[in-house]
Amino acid sequence: MTTKSFAHPHYQRAGQMERQEFETLVAKAIADLPAEFQHKLDNVDIVVQDWPTRRQLRQSRVGPHAQLLGLYEGVPQTKRGRGYELVLPDKITIFQKPIEAQCRSASDIEAKVQEVVRHEIAHHFGIDEHTLRKIESKRRTRK
User: Fold this and answer.
1) Half-sphere exposure of 133 toward its Cβ, with a 13 Å CA cutoff?
2) Is the pLDDT reported for residue 44 higher than 80?
């Protein structure tokens, strides 16, 4: 996979990016994962969507003042039993517009996409929201 330099021919203004460039950031975030995680994503669709639907917002139980940046829909690997065969792929959706709304620059968007992709993939591996928040909080305080 080749990565683009971010000289931003498609970057229209702070907080808004062409879909293709945003999808490239998502692909780069996946490519940047350690190989042992990448190999376990064979039955996961990762898609980009502008905004979450009402159903997705209800499903994720986000509060009225929170923004949903990504969503994992599926059965975490830790909860799969013997009968887990011939199922539709799990789905991770990355929401472009809420991410852009939180960012001031292309580099901010890239960093946020990396964070959100890792967060949703962690759900796929069975890490719950509470545990993820604690891990992310510790990581931020080390910086």
Assistant:
1) 3
2) yes
